[in-house]
């Protein structure tokens, strides 16, 4: 967004902007080689209960709250940024999270009806148990698994763990374990087991025909069976050549499967038969005898708990589907806005904006803009309040200079971005460039393009292009160029760089292999290749000067750079293009240099604007929102003329 290296979104990229759907995926039964139980997914809806929906959830409070007065930050000493302003900023960007809030409201209301409560201690205990099961610590869990789903710890606790515990309590009383189920569970865990190799064809006429056509050959030829198992359509099975872990009876949840498979002898192949997942051929590899050292009564309690937990999990999704259907939510908010000028779909009823409904459920129970704003602030507020502040700083400066950016200018700039990325279309941009960061087009337009254009207009009058700069640009683009390979060692690997240098210099094959497998993934993916590049373009003057002294096939000495230690090996010198003169490209180069200087100037300009704004952020930890009463009291008296707030207004 801004040009400031420390504070601006352009510098931060999308790092840490966790946008979550927060949910729990319920894994129903079926063959474990196809639908194996995984870590609860973070990209599906929060699972819910099968308990009957309450007749009417509590209506939203009608009285005016202090949402519009509570301050999350101050600019210029006394200019407040309110909780409502931050909430509206987040609603514009995270409207697609409304369904998650609706789901949570439905679950919470059902829990109130049935007096189900989940304490903070229960949430922490469940999280600790989950981490223990994954054999990782909390920091690793947050930095790897949650980061993969763009979630933070607060969201996981509130939107996954708490909802899961609520649903389990709502559903547990509905689950009963029979004596027959206990004996089957005992048999599946401690009874005879079989290890086998499986080939699965799609469950359609084509799959059935292929299976029957291949059957005789696969049954009689062990090598052909192995080859087909490795090349079968189901990737998960192909990856293991169809081999699955030893399993007992009743594990697959298919009596016909058990009947056919458990009569096989080692190296015997079953007939082709149909399952819920498709047409199957099974080869028995080995049979394991039952564990007769364990008695049923000694593990009854353990088995009962495991069975109950499994049945509760299975019940949860069915239960939530029923609750959701009964609640019949109606969404009013436009959750897919792509432009600032798009309507958000919420009608103006003349009342306070914060009290307008963005959705209804259970008839006329509303979810207001304030409700949704608070939901988003708890999850993303402390991280993204900085972005709102930066926008406010830039907008205020532009207003002072009567600078505006039109939708047409944003559209043009977006088109230019797509061209710079290789003339891709908008659909590809959203999927391949924004999708991996869970960002949307609205955010790119409003938090990247708009402030970039604003800052460029603010700085344009400060930039001039002189003759020396034109000469340097001309030489860089049309002068002599170099192409070669670079190897970069991290700064803490100087010792290894020195040890490897002589061998890399004297052995071209060793250099090539090292270039392909170096620490820098960017360089490694290109085999270390860089260029062609001209003078004053490499970004490191010393490395560039040494590179231009080389003859083809030579390598520089080890050169220190801010990124680490580097060597460059010259492969080809490309002579200057003498057919082009400076005058013939003066206008083009002037424009290019000017635009580059404007972009550089915006960094300095925003840094000054940000420093002058004297930002004081009161909203701190997004994973653990707190009320900073004392901090607010300390800040307020320092701003002359600012009224003392009410005691409750210091909560952030």
How many β-strands, per DSSP? 14
Task: Supply Rg.
Answer: 32 Å
The share of residues in helices is 40-55%
Return the structural class.
Answer: alpha+beta
- Quickly count the helices: 23
What do you see in this structure?
It is a single chain. The chain is α+β, with helices and mostly antiparallel strands. About 50% of the residues lie in helices and about 10% in strands. The protein is built from 23 helices and 14 strands. The protein has a four-stranded antiparallel sheet with strand order 4-3-6-5, sandwiched between helices. Strands 11-10-13-12 form a four-stranded antiparallel sheet, sandwiched between helices. Helix 3 packs across helix 12, helix 16 crosses helix 22 and helix 18 crosses helix 19. It is globular and about 90 Å long. The N terminus and C terminus are likely disordered.
